[in-house]
Amino acid sequence: MNAQTKPNSTKQRPPLPLTIGAAAALVGGGAIAFWALTRQQLNVMPIGANAIPQDALMVVSVSTDTGKWQQLREFGTPRSQAAFDQSLVQFRDRFLKNRGLEYARDIQPWIGKEVTMAFLPPQAGVTVPNPGQPAAPPNAQPTVMVVPIADALKAKDTLEKSPATQGAKWTERDYKGVKVRENQESANQSTSIAVLDTTQVLVANNPNAIERAIDTVKEGKSLAQTPGYGEALTQIQEENAIARLYVNIPAAANTSAANSSRPIPPQTLAQLQQNQGLAATAKLTNEGIQFKGISWLRPDSQRKLNTENTAKTIPTRLPTDTLMMASGGNLKQFWQDYTQGSASNPIQFVNPEALRQGIRTTVGLDLEKDLLNWMQGEYSLALLPAPQGAPAALPASLVFMVQTSDRRAAEATLKKLDEVMATKYAFKVEEAKVEGQSIVNWSLPAASVNITRGWLDGNVAFLSLGAPIASAILPKPTKALAENELFRKSMQSELAPHNGNFFVDMDRVLKLQNFPLLQIPAANRTVLEAISSIGVTAAVTSDRTSRYDVFVGLKKGNNPGALP
Known about the structure:
It is a single chain. The chain is an alpha+beta fold. The chain contains 19 helices and 20 strands. It has a 20-stranded antiparallel β-sheet, sandwiched between helices. Strand 16 and strand 17 form a beta hairpin. The longest helix has 29 residues, at 16-44. The termini are far apart. Residues 1-42 and 132-139 have low confidence and may be disordered.
């Protein structure tokens, strides 16, 4: 038996040379794959990533290709073009003209393809005075700019001959073997410049900030070493990007908490610390700007993202003339995520506690128990134009749709609402039929208030406030939003499946009259008038990453002249 099995068992083992060869191939292949991945991630890093401290709050990289900026200036209305040019001039003057520099004379002859600006935590701008000296006021925001050198000889020659760098106002010092030139323009404004290996120029607005950058190059943790950063950038890489952005969410949250007048609960801050970063790229197209964004969690995060991407049908349920819409895959989950981070969010669309209290006081319902418990499906909030013949006082209707996970519970809650509206607020509550389907109208003729509720496809509840639009969505639209050409252009996304969309037909929204929810300040209208549409697609791509595709359609404007 042994004599027979031994040859067989020996036969099943591969020869030693083959085993060694296979192991070598695996190790070698893994090494090659690791090298290729590392190279790929290095290639997508912004210029100067090795000089930017890892605790930078925000990092912005912009292209130095004047053709791209000229193309961007060609978009918009005459008013928005003038406003954009003014912003460019202010940016130029803030960083260059106020320091005696001229871009065409001093920078353009030698600069590389991209400039990176890093905004550091406030403590990076604190200067420790010498004994007996008063502390100098810190800069408002410590900033380091990394300017790549495409032509080292030309850079040296240009900067040495520039009137901006001549005179006794500049001093020199050595910091860890790097020559630093400085100019103290005022008590709280200075400029520090250092050249790194003839490939990069560092420019900072205070001495401490440039020292942080030099420390980072020599021995510190840099932006390039941020967990998940390189991998995230490979997912949103754009060869011809005009701008790139990175936000350090934990560092930004800490700074916000330290400087906020509104205390941030420790549990909320801890929740934000689970995040690592948010990054985005912007690319110009013939019709506007295409953004790709990504957010990701820290490697040691206890939090995991829900990977369900279930937003599918809303664009087919809304009519083609929809003015604006926002949709998602699970309303209950969205509310839970929103309330967890709302305390530290500087832009709060809705105060969670105020909404809870308002619903409890006005209609006697518990938001979570009576409403959100059965709202675990796809949802949307949309703005629809009034049909022909509608009163001028009702130019549009706000329409809410949600796919219910428990129709019986939903019906019970909606019946309670019918009773409250009739008994407490004296609304006229009556059933009606639209295209053979039952609806319930709540009306208050004296106040021109009209609310309609009903069902689509058996499990999608809808509620409209404003103009009577039930016939536009029941039993289904004659032509759906998904077929709208502007909607299709605005949803230029590779994300499929996804878990939410946002769309606005800006031209038609701005022309909407007598609608109290869209009273836009004149200053904001200047920018918005340049936009034809906005489209956003969001998706959870793993239990640690979320992706966003955003398209901003822009109007073609006049051919711009030279900047003033």
